[in-house]
Amino acid sequence: MTRPAPAIVILGNGSLATAQKIQQLYPHALIHGLAGRVEGADRSYQEFGATLRELYQQDIPIIALCAAGIVIRTLAPLLLEKGAEPPVLAIAEDGSAVVPLLGGLGGVNVLAREIAAGLNVTAAITTSGELRFGTCLLNPPSGYTLGDLEQGKRFVSDLLAGETVRIEGSAPWLAQAKLPEDDQARLAVHVGHAEREPAANELMIYPRSVLVAVSAAVVDLSVAIGEALHQAKVAVQSVACLLACETEMASPALREAAFELGVPLRFADGADGVRALARRMIGQPAVICGDDTIAIAVAEQPLDPLQIGRARGRLAVIGLGPGAAELMAPAVKAELACANDVLGYETYVRMAGPFRADQVMHCTDNREEMQRARHAFELAAQGRSVVVVSSGDPGVFAMAAAVLEALHESSEASWHNVDLQILPGISASLATAAQAGAPLGHDFCVLSLSDNLKPWSIIEKRLDLAAQADLALAFYNPISRARPWQLACALEIVGKHRKPATPVVLGRDIGRPGQTLRVTTLDQLTPEQVDMRTMVLIGSSTTCVFPRVEGGQWVYTPRWYK
User: Fold this and answer.
1) Which residues have a Cβ under 8 Å from the Cβ of 162 and sit 6 or more positions away?
2) Which residues of 480-517 are buried (b: 16+ CB within 10 A; e: fewer)?
3) In this structure, which topology does domain 314-426 adopt according to CATH?
4) Which residues, listed in sequence order, are joined to residue 392 by a DSSP beta bridge?
5) HSE of 16 in the Cβ direction (CA atoms, 13 Å)?
6) Are 461 and 356 in contact (CB under 8 A)?
7) How many angstroms from the chain centroid is the CA of residue 149?
8) Which of 76, 136, 211, 225 is the least crowded, having the fewest Cβ atoms under 10 Å away?
9) What CA–CA distance (Å, rounded) separates 519 from 490?
């Protein structure tokens, strides 16, 4: 699988020039700068330790421009067994030193050498095998995979102790290494796709040169694939990808089989059957075996799955939260990082950035939800990874419902085959409530006062019933230039069932620069205090207010009921 672009993490402006030089080597990498101390970073963060640990847990390579000791102490609680970590490097602020710290089996030394060459310095490589032989046998390049890590460790240890080695099979990268080769050597590196037990002194390296074309109709697909590979005497480690007919894109069995094999799942027009599909994708010369339910194609060289068929399109509807980067869910950040296309109201799309040069932004007016949803499906049906952006939570007066409505109305099979995901965010009502304390701490009701998509008579009825039920209330879209009278009408309805002293919280742009929070009462609230960017929270009969020691007030609704 392709590793994500590295994150370049800096603590001050003194590191920015070096970070930008490194970014030129990895155009998809983003520079993360400490808020208040770095200007010009792609993303800001509030706490160095939390940011580094979050990146590490997301398996994102880390290039930290700071002392190595800071990085080590920060990540120490997360360190697992060797081989499980992403690459982690410490770089001197002025670029004079490049130190690989973690991820020896994840390519950290390759990154270190690339960065060092870009900075015109020498990487501080300490791995004995790489220093001696110029390559890491335990971390083959893309297109190859190691058979057994533990056996590999013993193998490299023997080589370092003075043993010689013979190479069996073809691997151009090994020919360029400085291995002590001898045709009569006891140790052997065997490169090949055949399934067999390794000899006692043999290191197995498998080229990813095998494509398995399958039909989703096969019972117990994962087991059947394993049996077919065994019968063909093909090692499962050599499988580069699974290939299926595009009409079977939505098959859970296919997804599960690809997941268990740890390989990509690709699709193509399979009108001629599985064997023909495999032959068409591999071309000649290729060895094809199997029947028209599972066909195995073996190429002469490692395969690039990205050049075979296409991926299943993905459409993720995401919630940015209230606006602050630290309040955005990690899953949402990861989805944005791998997107090909980002669609949404321009203000929200800009909030979701910055974006790489290869990512396409499709910005539209805030009233074009259905056109945006249909466009998103058109793009995803082409095999692209698409994100539709909402502020707050996408399922609360936002794009998730519009996307599902577009899909519900469509009979286009390619749209229904898209991998559709809804990723939550912190809704504006919850973000405002958290700033104030817990005004929604008991039963509450969320309403939009906009009558663009529903009649005002329905809003009035729901307001009256919710107020009668003594629910705390959260008002979205409370007022606009086109609807200047509706908030006053809503407050009049609520006032029939609430005391004048009922606490009210007004949160404007919560989670964004310039946010304001105000606590008032129902009888003191006027429409002039509110605009379209204000969240209005009205307490129930039990909602309480008391002073904060640093100024202002806490507001909460007890969990009990009088």
Assistant:
1) none
2) eeebeebbebbbebbbebbeeebbbbbbbbbbeeebeb
3) Cobalt-precorrin-4 Transmethylase; domain 1 (3.40.1010)
4) 321
5) 13
6) no
7) 28
8) 76
9) 19
- Angle (nearest 5°) at CA 502 between 501 and 503: 105
- Where do we find the tokens 């939505």? 250
Q: Beta strand pairing status for 88-91 and 165-168?
A: unpaired
pLDDT in tens, 263-281: 999 998 876 778 888 888 8
Distances in Å between the Cα of 414 and the Cα atoms of 34, 344, 468, 555 are 43, 22, 47, 49
> For residue 547, how many other CB atoms are within 10 A of its CB?
9
* pLDDT digit string, tens, across residues 406-451: 999 999 999 999 999 999 999 999 999 999 999 999 999 999 999 9
The full set of domain ranges for the chain reads 7-126, 144-207, 213-226+239-307, 314-426, 429-556
Token duo for residue 28? 């998809």
Joined together, the tokens standing for residue 117 give 């060459």
pTM of the predicted model as reported, rounded to 2 decimal places: 0.79
Region 341-369: mean pLDDT is 89
| Tokens read off for 268 | 């193509």
Q: What is the dihedral of CA 496, 502, 508, 509, to 10 degrees?
A: -100
CATH number for the domain whose boundaries are 7-126? 3.40.50.11220
- The 3-state DSSP class for residue 312 equals coil
Helix (H) or strand (E) holding 371: helix 369-380
Work out whether strand 7-10 and strand 62-65 pair parallel, antiparallel, or are unpaired: parallel
List the structure tokens of 504. 């009210």
**Are both 7-126 and 429-556 of the same fold?**
no
**Cα radius of gyration rounded to whole Å, the chain:** 29
Cα distance between residue 517 and residue 428, in whole Å: 13
What is the spatial distance between Cα 101 and Cα 103, in angstroms, rounded to a whole number?
A: 7
pLDDT in tens, 11-67: 999 999 999 999 999 878 889 999 888 988 888 888 999 999 989 988 899 999 999
What is the architecture of the domain spanning 429-556?
2-Layer Sandwich (3.30)
Q: For residue 366, which amino acid is it?
A: N
Burial (0-12, 13-18, 19+ Cβ within 10 Å), 228 = buried
